[in-house]
Design brief:
3 helices, alpha+beta, about 120 residues, Ribosomal Protein L22, Chain A, two-stranded antiparallel sheet, about 35% strand, three-stranded antiparallel sheet
Length: about 120
Amino acid sequence: MEVQAVAKYVKRTPRKARLVADSVKGLKVGDALAYLEFSPKHAAIDVAKVIKSAAANAEHNFNLNREELVVKQLLIDDGPTMKRLRFRSRGMASQYFRRTCHITAVVEDRPEGAK
């Protein structure tokens, strides 16, 4: 059974969050969280939070065993981009972007004997 959790409007660039998400796809939930805990990337905190939420949803709502859960899918979608101005010399201004992303984690139960 597949269970998912979504975090919206996360203030991380999608490109940097995808680097972290691709490294933990297919791992067990416990292994993925251990990997993300010691990852030097800042986006690992946000991805770990969504994986924990999906595992808690599976445990609480569907009575699934946490040790058998596997990270099936991690989707990182673009969120809205906030446009900001940085003021420059001689009365000019340049634009920069604060990018956001939506993180969706899908976990499924996979018994020990099945692949």
